[in-house]
């Protein structure tokens, strides 16, 4: 389609554009349309010259011709109708039409019509005023602009409310967005829960940001129109509503005599999720288009609030379940300083397939464990929960790590076979017993997990030779067992494969590996256990460089030394050892 | 930290506190802090005029190679315990809304935001401290779950700014206003201005900003039109290739590097990567000074560890050659090379 095609297929009457540019083209288009649409009728065409005055009378523009002295010499019928005060033979200035002076620019309003006028000089110092009535096109352009503003407003609303929000945030955002486009004061009342209706209100202030406040209405305080709105009805006669709302102090800065208000329900899942009251000065009445806009806004606001409430309800359930599946921090124990780090693979979820924990034994020792179950995400987390509950019960019956691990294996086999899950786990399970000198004796059993590391006082890092088979697979697994003595200040570190199998490096595909872990820990013998666990997490995450990763779990046990009280208020390094180490270094 | 100058008693306590950190003596450090509280010193002063400057000094000692990473971690851990003890000792009644404080993803300097969190708590806010390196997804799901009045995000390293920006946007989409702090945004917060987010230079100003919702929401919009030139994503795509070729050239021109142990090689690769990351961040906020400041800092660190300037000059030169078609990155590299000691400015 070319430009001339467009011109031919009726661009309206071209009145949206300025007359000076469109008039000639519309004229020529008209001519062509006549010539192409109709065959030439009269063979004597072009014989008599047209009577130009007769032609000109039918212009949409009115003509006022003035002589050199500014006296009106001719007024076309259209001009007579638009400007009745302009009379032939009188000076144009005496008619007192504001738009008809040489310095006037653009349009003007005259007798309730929007007019434009342009002055064209003619021969003999005469001039002609072309006057056009553009009321319709201006109002059409205004309507178009208003429609554009409405679409832009709804686009912003959709953008701001499109993300799931906290319900209170969503409610505040709804009233904040309604001001000033829809209202000077906007009040949102949510459907009551247990007889209490929460409300949010935004009112226009001098600067850009509206002021937002909120509160609670109890039972019977709801005005009838609001209560009706909550049943889904949109009240029509709302004059008394304004009075009621003003009397109740709902509309600060607006007096009832000069205020208009509307109430629209916000659609919810079945019944409305709430009701929106919009109010502004009567100088801007809510016409049909405005009410349509308020309704469109209400639809989006209702969807956002419904999503937010749904999300909150589900998040509450998820949170409660997650909390029960999160690793529990080790319990304080004599002579042990614990350190932990935990970073699940899915950051939005706080749980995963790694687990750790400890239980206190009646003889003063502690059972501790760290492991990893097959699978990822929620299902894996649920399995860790079963496993931890098993251990919680079984450690009361058996405190020898290898025998405890076999019991755990039997219990897991039974549950997994019953559920047909085929799940298994790797685990290191140990018992720590404090010694008189402040050291610890660790007896550990291995269930196919990565062997623990020990940080010696010398700064060296040893790998504990601990082997064994996965648990939850066969009925009589081979379980490794080892005993390690920690001198005061020495640390044993258990970790999951999320550490050593972290992929990073130059290309993001190199495994972190056990050697790098040992390097990162070498020389860290003075670190308190929590700092050490965090260091492992940190070097792993630095290696990952924001890449995806498996669940990461770290459990560190440090022999707290003599007089160590365990837990938070612990000498991180016993004074005696510390001094000699410092001089060595 | 001017208040420390005005109070000699705290000055004395300060040197004692540093000694306790050096001795890794958690008891003594905690007792000293609690003793100050009992003597009537305001908790906020203990946090900001004792713990905070001591932590800055710890960082300096690491930078000067006087302290090992292990010592720095131990001292930081003790300061965290002291903050916890001070916080447990003073229990202000919460009067304000909820404020969430977190470190950006990948950011492990948790003590400064922890101090901000405690100062906010002392001023009556209900504070949730999410800790070090908080993934954006975790933060956002927290914000969906709990209605927060504001989020305070900390970033200590400018190379994290592009991630910081993503995180800020994620909070904004949850309609929660954000205030940021930390040296990662520049000493004067100029990169926060670039990203269009409110910035606070210290804990008291953060508290004032959070109390003023209008100021919090009134940050001027981000000025990131320069990102249209695609330099930043192209640089990221070429990261691995740049490091590889820089390493190859280093091995060719400095024979000693061929004998590096695995750990030394990792450290070199990590340094080469940091140079690219800081360069990318400088391109992201369109400010070469981000890169030149980093080059100065890195050369200081390496010099204190006996590494010659050439170890930085060479990769800078190499990157400049490889990135000839990246006008903004090339300019930052040229300015960076010029700031190295012994180079014409």
Write up this protein:
The complex is a heterodimer of chains A (585) and B (345). In chain A, 35% of the residues lie in helices and 24% in strands. Chain A is of the alpha+beta class and 585 residues long. Chain A folds into three domains: 3-31 and 50-138, 2-Layer Sandwich (Beta-Lactamase); 141-317, 2-Layer Sandwich (Beta-Lactamase), CATH 3.30.450.40; 327-584, PPM-type phosphatase domain (Phosphatase 2c, domain 1). Chain A starts with a helix and ends with a helix. The relative contact order of chain A is 0.06. The two termini of chain B are 33 Å apart. With 345 residues, chain B is an alpha/beta fold. Chain B folds into three domains: 1-91, Methionine synthase domain (Methyltransferase, Methionine Synthase (B12-binding Domains), Chain A, domain 1); 92-223, Rossmann fold (3-Layer(aba) Sandwich), CATH 3.40.50; 228-339. Chain B contains 17 helices and five strands. The chains are: A alpha+beta (585), B alpha/beta (345). Chains A and B meet through helix 6, helix 9, helix 13 and helix 14 of A and helix 3, helix 5, helix 7, helix 13 and helix 14 of B.
Reconstruct the topology from this structure.
The complex is a heterodimer of chains A (585) and B (345).
Chain A: H1 3-8, H2 19-37, H3 52-56, E1 62-66, E2 72-75, H4 77-82, E3 107-110, E4 113-121, E5 127-133, H5 135-161, H6 167-178, E6 185-190, E7 196-203, E8 211-218, H7 224-230, H8 239-247, E9 259-266, E10 274-281, H9 288-325, E11 336-343, E12 354-360, E13 366-373, H10 377-394, H11 401-419, E14 425-434, E15 440-447, E16 453-455, E17 461-463, E18 480-486, E19 491-495, H12 497-500, E20 503-504, E21 510-511, H13 513-521, H14 529-544, E22 552-559, H15 575-584
Antiparallel strand pairs in A: 1-2, 1-5, 3-4, 4-5, 6-7, 6-10, 7-8, 9-10, 11-22, 12-13, 13-14, 14-15, 15-18, 16-17, 16-19, 19-22, 20-21
Chain B: H1 3-6, H2 8-22, H3 26-38, H4 43-63, H5 69-89, E1 98-103, H6 111-122, E2 126-129, H7 136-145, E3 150-154, H8 161-173, E4 178-181, H9 190-195, E5 198-199, H10 203-211, H11 213-217, H12 231-237, H13 239-253, H14 262-285, H15 288-304, H16 310-322, H17 327-339
Parallel strand pairs in B: 1-2, 1-3, 3-4, 4-5
Helix pairs in contact in B: 2-3, 2-4, 3-5, 4-5, 4-6, 5-6, 6-10, 7-8, 12-14, 13-14, 13-16, 14-15, 14-17, 15-17, 16-17
């Amino acid at each position: 389609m070319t430009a001339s095609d467009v011109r031919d297929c009726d661009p309206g009457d071209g009145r949206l554009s300025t007359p000076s540019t469109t008039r000639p083209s519309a004229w020529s288009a008209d001519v062509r349309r006549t010539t192409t649409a109709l065959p030439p009728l009269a063979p004597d065409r072009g014989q008599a010259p047209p009577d130009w005055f007769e032609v000109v009378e039918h212009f949409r523009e009115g003509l006022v011709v003035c002589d050199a002295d500014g006296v009106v010499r001719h007024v076309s019928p259209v001009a007579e109708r638009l400007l009745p005060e302009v009379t032939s033979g009188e000076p144009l200035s005496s008619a007192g039409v504001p738009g008809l002076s040489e310095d006037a620019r653009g349009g003007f309003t005259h007798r309730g019509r929007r007019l434009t006028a342009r002055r064209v000089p003619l021969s003999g110092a005469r001039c002609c005023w072309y006057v056009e009535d553009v009321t319709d096109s201006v109002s059409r352009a205004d309507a178009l602009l208003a429609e554009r503003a409405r679409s832009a407003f709804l686009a912003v609303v959709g953008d701001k409310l499109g993300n799931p929000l906290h319900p209170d945030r969503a409610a505040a955002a709804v009233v904040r967005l309604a001001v000033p486009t829809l209202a000077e004061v906007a009040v949102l009342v949510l459907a009551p829960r247990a007889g209490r209706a929460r409300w949010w209100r935004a009112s226009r202030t001098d600067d850009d940001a509206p002021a937002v406040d909120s509160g609670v209405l109890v039972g019977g305080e709801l005005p009838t129109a609001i209560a009706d709105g909550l049943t889904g009805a949109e009240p029509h006669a709302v004059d008394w509503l304004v009075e009621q709302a003003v009397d109740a102090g709902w509309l600060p800065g607006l007096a009832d005599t000069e205020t208009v208000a509307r109430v629209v329900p916000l659609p919810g899942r079945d019944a409305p999720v709430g009701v929106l009251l919009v109010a502004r000065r009567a100088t801007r009445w809510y016409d049909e288009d405005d009410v349509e806009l308020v309704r469109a806004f209400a639809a989006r606001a209702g969807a956002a609030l419904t999503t937010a409430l749904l999300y909150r309800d589900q998040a509450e359930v998820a949170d409660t379940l997650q909390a029960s599946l999160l690793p529990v921090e080790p319990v304080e124990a004599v002579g042990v300083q614990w350190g932990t780090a935990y970073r699940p693979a899915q950051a939005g979820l706080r749980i995963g397939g790694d687990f750790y924990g400890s239980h206190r034994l009646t003889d003063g020792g502690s059972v501790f464990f760290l492991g990893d179950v097959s699978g990822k995400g929620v299902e894996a987390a649920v399995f860790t929960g079963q496993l931890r509950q098993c251990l919680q019960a079984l450690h009361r019956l058996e405190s020898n790590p290898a025998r405890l691990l076999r019991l755990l294996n039997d219990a897991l086999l039974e549950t997994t076979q019953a559920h047909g899950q085929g799940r298994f786990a790797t685990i290191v399970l140990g018992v720590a017993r404090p010694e008189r000198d402040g050291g610890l004796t660790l007896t550990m059993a291995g269930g196919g997990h990565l062997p623990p590391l020990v940080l010696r006082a010398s700064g060296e890092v040893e790998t504990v030779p601990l082997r064994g088979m996965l648990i939850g697979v066969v009925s009589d697994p081979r379980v490794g067992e080892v005993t390690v003595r920690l001198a005061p200040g020495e640390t044993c570190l258990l970790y999951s494969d999320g550490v050593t199998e972290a992929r990073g490096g130059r290309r993001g595909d190199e495994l972190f590996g056990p050697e790098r872990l040992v390097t990162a820990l070498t020389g860290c013998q003075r670190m308190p256990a929590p700092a050490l666990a965090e260091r492992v997490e940190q070097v792993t995450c630095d290696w990952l460089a924001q890449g995806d990763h498996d669940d990461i779990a770290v459990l560190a046990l440090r022999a707290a030394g003599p007089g160590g009280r365990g837990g938070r208020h612990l000498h991180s390094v016993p004074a005696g050892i510390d001094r000699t180490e410092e001089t060595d270094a | 930290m001017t208040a420390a100058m005005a109070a000699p008693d705290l000055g004395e306590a300060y040197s004692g506190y540093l000694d306790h950190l050096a001795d890794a003596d958690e008891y003594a450090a905690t007792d000293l802090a609690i003793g100050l509280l009992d003597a009537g010193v305001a908790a906020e002063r203990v946090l900001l005029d004792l713990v905070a400057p001591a932590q800055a000094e710890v960082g300096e000692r690491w930078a000067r190679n006087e302290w090992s990473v292990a010592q720095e971690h131990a001292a930081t851990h003790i300061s965290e315990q002291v903050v916890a003890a001070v916080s447990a000792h003073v229990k202000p009644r919460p009067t304000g809304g909820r404020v969430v404080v977190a470190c950006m993803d990948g950011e492990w300097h948790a003590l400064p935001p922890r101090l901000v969190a405690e100062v906010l708590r002392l001023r009556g806010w209900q504070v949730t401290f999410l800790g070090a390196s908080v993934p954006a997804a975790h933060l956002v799901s927290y914000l969906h779950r709990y209605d927060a009045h504001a989020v305070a995000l900390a970033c200590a390293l400018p190379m994290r700014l592009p991630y910081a920006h993503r995180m800020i946007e994620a909070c904004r989409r949850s309609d929660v206003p954000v205030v940021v702090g930390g040296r990662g945004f520049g000493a004067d917060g100029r990169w926060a201005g670039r990203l269009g987010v409110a910035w606070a230079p210290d804990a008291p100003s953060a508290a004032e900003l959070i109390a003023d919702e209008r100021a919090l929401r009134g940050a001027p919009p981000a000025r990131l039109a320069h990102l249209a030139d695609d330099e930043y994503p192209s640089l990221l795509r070429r990261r691995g290739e740049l490091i590889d070729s820089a390493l190859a050239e280093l091995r060719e021109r400095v024979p000693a590097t061929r004998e590096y142990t695995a750990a030394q090689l990792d450290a070199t690769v990590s340094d080469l990567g940091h140079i690219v990351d800081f360069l990318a961040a400088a391109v992201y906020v369109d400010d070469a000074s981000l890169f030149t400041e980093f080059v100065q800092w890195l050369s200081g660190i390496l010099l204190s560890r006996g590494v010659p300037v050439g170890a930085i000059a060479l990769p800078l030169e190499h990157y400049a050659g490889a990135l000839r078609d990246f006008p903004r990155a090339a300019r930052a590299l040229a300015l960076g090379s010029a700031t190295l000691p012994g180079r014409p400015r």
